[in-house]
Amino acid sequence: MNILLIWIQGSGKGTQARKIAADYGYSFFEMGQKLRNFSELDHPRSSEVKSHMEQGRLVPDDLIVAMLEHYRDTHRDEKVLFDGIPRSSSQKALFDAVFPDYFVVFLDLKREQAIDRLAGRKIDPTTGESFPAHFEGTFSPFTGERLISRPDDTPQAVAKRIEIFYENTLPLLALWAQENKHRVYTVDASKDIETVYEQIKVVLSAY
Ligand code: AMP
User: Fold this and answer.
1) What spacing in Å lies between the alpha carbon of 191 and ligand 1's midpoint?
2) How far, in Å, CA of 39 to CA of 125, rounded?
3) pLDDT band (50, 70, 90) for residue 131
4) C-alpha of residue 58 to centroid of ligand 1, in Å
5) Count of alpha carbons within 13 angstroms of residue 4, beta-carbon side
6) Can you tell me the distance from the alpha carbon of 43 to that of 66, in angstroms, rounded to the nearest whole number?
7) Is the dihedral of CA 87, 90, 92, 95 positive or negative?
8) Secondary structure of the chain in the HEC alphabet?
9) pLDDT at residue 10 in the model
């Protein structure tokens, strides 16, 4: 069964997602990274995507659904770990139509802690993996790539992403609870990476 990771920015989900995908054989669909790659293409809508991302706004749903459908059609028979989708109730409806079978892991983190974790982080431009401000290296130990600051980690864009999380994404938990079709598991993401991963492993052991 597919897994959806729901989180606030900075909850360390990208790190957890990579561990789950590697240890449990999931394909990894990372919406933000797919959009970052798309924004660099020579495509008529790339600059539109780039501009939305720079401001921390949601990219229009028609592009999101086209990417989901393409992924479904090219990854049949694979179990997929989704990160960064859905982020609104309209996206949830689109997502449910394309990938109906999944359970949700909600990585719960307080707003202040999320902002702290975002401050000064660096990312690997090829994989999108993020490294906290206290990471001292200049290069990713995994790919050897030089780490960069994310262009959309400006205070304004971060504030916008956090606002969207509370206004559009968090209410999805109530929708899932009402529908009672998809299980939602809450994990305390304030702990260190290994402790959080242990909690996630307990959830996954049920599948
Ligand atoms: P992330 O890497 O998950 O922080 O996403 C970076 C940016 O990509 C967001 O601030 C949005 O501009 C865009 N984005 C990511 N996921 C979505 C989504 N599900 N729908 C629309 N835009 C998205």
Assistant:
1) 24
2) 13
3) confident
4) 6
5) 24
6) 14
7) negative
8) CEEEEEECCCCCHHHHHHHHHHHHCCEEEEHHHHHHHHHCCCCCCHHHHHHHHHCCCCCCHHHHHHHHHHHHHHCCCCCEEEECCCCCHHHHHHHHHHCCCEEEEEEECCHHHHHHHHCCCEECCCCCCEECCCCCCCECCCCCCECECCCCCCHHHHHHHHHHHHHHHCHHHHHHHHHCCCCEEEEECCCCHHHHHHHHHHHHCCC
9) 63
* Residue with tokens 């997929």, as numbered in its chain: 80
Residue owning the nearest CA to atom 8 of ligand 1: 32
Instruction: Name the residue of 31, 68, 149, 150 whose CB sits within 8 Å of the most ligand 1 atoms, as the mutation to test its pocket.
Output: 31
Mean pLDDT of 140-166: 86
Q: Which residue, 28, 13, 112, is CA-closest to 71?
A: 28
Q: Is the CB of 64 under 6 A from ligand 1?
A: yes
* Closest by CA position to 193, among listed 128, 142, 146, 132: 132
What is the pTM assigned to this prediction? 0.87
Residue nearest to atom 3 of ligand 1 (CA): 32
- Determine whether the shortest distance from the Cβ of 52 to ligand 1 is under 6 A: yes
pLDDT of the residue at 34: 92
Q: Is the CB of 85 under 6 A from ligand 1?
A: yes
